[in-house]
Design a protein that fits this description.
- The protein is α+β, with helices and mostly antiparallel strands.
- It has 13 helices and seven strands.
- β5 and β6 form a beta hairpin.
- α4 runs parallel beside α10.
- The radius of gyration is 24 Å and the shape is flat.
- It starts with a helix and ends with a helix.
């Protein structure tokens, strides 16, 4: 189960004892606060704390007092302007702190975003649980033939069954040896900080991850993208649902300009203008490399 009884009891207690506050409150985020949302087979995300709302963004942009203008439309327009012109500081006025349970190999991808504050569960001090990420059959895929860091078609039949059996067997064997090494029953027992090196990368870890909204949007733009690895994308998708309720105007602008928009190089803009003027443009006449041309055509053909 993603949550242990102690964690669930803590959540129930926190949600049962609301506290009065004078700070800005996002009603959408209040509905999510402390709740755990399942991700993968044993993982979850949950909001521990947050600061700010849409009004905090516009307030910072104007360096004013209160909630900014009285017109919601004006505030939404300002947020869209800030997003459209890549202003970052006003979005940094909002922060979120998440509790995340995730496989170690996903954590290693995630931590490449070096713009957050992180405190991870210590396997030097505590014993990791026997919980491993085992992909469902539809997510067992072969290596992509065109992308060195991507997947191809799903494995089928006996091959898929064999891979699943290897993953399960190796994971449990490694954990059995981990338990044996740290055991003090009739032996000194290996230090936990050494015994953990034998554990597989699909074992689950946990951390608190605090990040401002500007850097969170950058994370989501990359990790909620259809090209991102599935196992981190599902975490990003879960976070997106929370952020959409926390700062709805900012998230709508993010969806429009970042997730739904495209960036063109100078050559790309030139080619587009020539196409609109009726010219037939090919890769050879575009001035682009084959890779650039393929990506440019993919943008136009989507």
């Amino acid at each position: 189960m993603p949550l242990n009884p102690e964690q669930q009891a803590e959540i129930d207690e926190l949600r049962a004892t609301p506290q009065p506050t004078l700070r800005a409150v996002s009603e959408g985020m209040e509905a999510h606060l402390y709740k755990a949302y399942d991700v993968l087979d044993h993982g979850f995300i949950r909001v521990i704390d947050y600061m700010g709302d849409d009004a905090a963004i516009t307030q910072a942009a104007r360096v004013s007092y209160g909630k900014g203008t009285k017109s919601v439309q004006n505030d939404e327009g300002l947020i869209r302007y800030l997003m459209r012109h890549w202003h970052s500081t006003p979005f940094e006025m909002c922060e979120i702190k998440l509790h995340v349970k995730l496989p170690v190999f996903v954590a290693r991808q995630w931590i490449r975003h070096r713009t957050a504050n992180v405190n991870e569960y210590s396997a030097r001090y505590s014993i990791l649980d026997r919980e491993f990420y085992i992909p469902s059959p539809e997510h067992l895929a072969a290596q992509s033939e065109i992308n060195n860091q991507g997947r191809g078609a799903a494995l089928q039949g006996a091959e898929a069954a064999q891979v699943l059996e290897i993953l399960k067997t190796d994971s449990n064997r490694a954990y059995d040896n981990y338990e044996q090494m740290i055991s003090e029953d009739g032996q000194a027992g290996l230090a936990r900080e050494l015994a953990r090196m034998n554990l597989p990368a699909n074992i689950y870890t946990q951390w608190y991850w605090k990040v401002d909204l500007h850097n969170l949007f950058h994370f989501l733009r990359l990790r909620a993208d259809s090209h991102a690895q599935y196992e981190i994308r599902v975490y990003a998708d879960a976070i997106c649902k929370v952020v959409a309720d926390w700062v709805p105007a900012a998230y709508a602008a993010f969806e429009d300009y970042r997730m739904g928009g495209v960036n063109l190089s100078g050559k790309g803009v030139d080619c587009l203008k020539r196409m609109l003027a009726g010219e037939t443009v090919t890769q050879e006449t575009s001035g682009m490399s084959k890779g650039e041309w393929r990506e440019f055509r993919a943008l136009l053909d989507d």
